[in-house]
Amino acid sequence: MSPSTSARALRPSPTPREDPAAGYEQAQWLADAAVRALRDEARLSPKPALVDARGSGAHRDLDLARMLRSACALRRPFAEMALAAQQARPDARLREQLARIGRVAEQRMLLATQGSNAHRGAIWALGLLLGARALPRFGASAAEVCADAARIARHPDRGHCDAGASHGARAARVYGAAGARGQACAGFPQVLHCGLPMLRRRRAAGARAEQARLDALLAIMAELDDTCLLHRGGQPALRAAQTGARRVLELGGAATRAGHAALLELDAELLARNASPGGSADLLSASLFLDAVTDD
């Protein structure tokens, strides 16, 4: 039995309207799945220019210990997001509730990391997907969860006065990229059509979990206009990352000798550019989360 199958088999019956205890149990299960996805992404190695078990990558203010502390600090707000969604609809009110909890989550992250941004993008993506998964429903496919997350994301957050302040948002404006908000409003296409299918396909073919996850990350990198890369290195860094990721996959992925060598070459090139595919890492976490909590 694969890890994801085991996680789904242990899922509590989602009947929060009929049983408040079941609602609490579901919220904890979803929060645990989100934290586990963040921790699994952080530990995954070797990731190109990203924090992993080898070191800090292109992130001088982060390391693996801080990433893991940040992930654990988010468990409570993730559970609160799930509880908020259990009696809700994918509407403006839920959008503002999730955003309000998300801002608290960011403060918890900053306390855990001594002021470093470990997971701001992941809080956005996982918060929306977790909220969408917690909505009242009978069963849930990845496509259904992503569609509901998009319905939530399309509403404005009237409680936030400076939505364009992040590096990613500025890069999206400068380069005309969709950015994190555009990705969410479109229903997370790089998760649904790149990361998640690659993860499941590689695992079904017998790849180890780490190899399947690396190839899922590369599948996302190959297609995503990653605003973290654009912020740090502009279009040249984005092209280098996309071209390099495609080359690794064309050589058979991280499990092959040639693919692994190409992955290390991509790592060296992005490090030389001081450019990190942080947006792709966030979407890998989203892929891992959906893999654990959806029915397909």
Fold topology:
Blueprint: H1 3-9, H2 20-43, H3 64-73, H4 75-85, H5 92-113, H6 120-134, H7 142-153, H8 167-175, H9 179-185, H10 189-204, H11 209-223, H12 227-250, H13 257-272, H14 278-293
Oligomer: single chain
How far apart, in Å, are the first and last alpha carbons? 15 Å
> β content, as a range?
under 5%
CATH topology: Triphosphoribosyl-dephospho-CoA protein
What's the pLDDT, averaged over the residues?
A: 92
Percent of residues in helices comes to 55-70%
| Main β-sheet description | none
Radius of gyration: 18 Å
CATH level-two architecture: Orthogonal Bundle
Poorly predicted runs: 1-6
Shape: globular
Query: CATH class, please?
Result: Mainly Alpha
* Class of secondary structure makeup: mainly alpha
User: What is the number of domains?
Assistant: 1
H/E element sequence: HHHHHHHHHHHHHH
CATH superfamily: Triphosphoribosyl-dephospho-CoA protein
Polypeptide structure, described:
By secondary structure, the protein is mainly alpha-helical. The chain has a single domain (13-157, 168-293), classed as Orthogonal Bundle (Triphosphoribosyl-dephospho-CoA protein), CATH 1.10.4200. 69% of the residues lie in helices and 0% in strands. The chain is built from 14 helices and no strands. α10 packs antiparallel against α11 (209-223), α10 (189-204) packs across α14 and α11 packs across α12 (227-250). The longest helix has 24 residues, at 20-43. The protein starts with a helix and ends with a helix. Mean pLDDT is 92; it is low at 1-6.
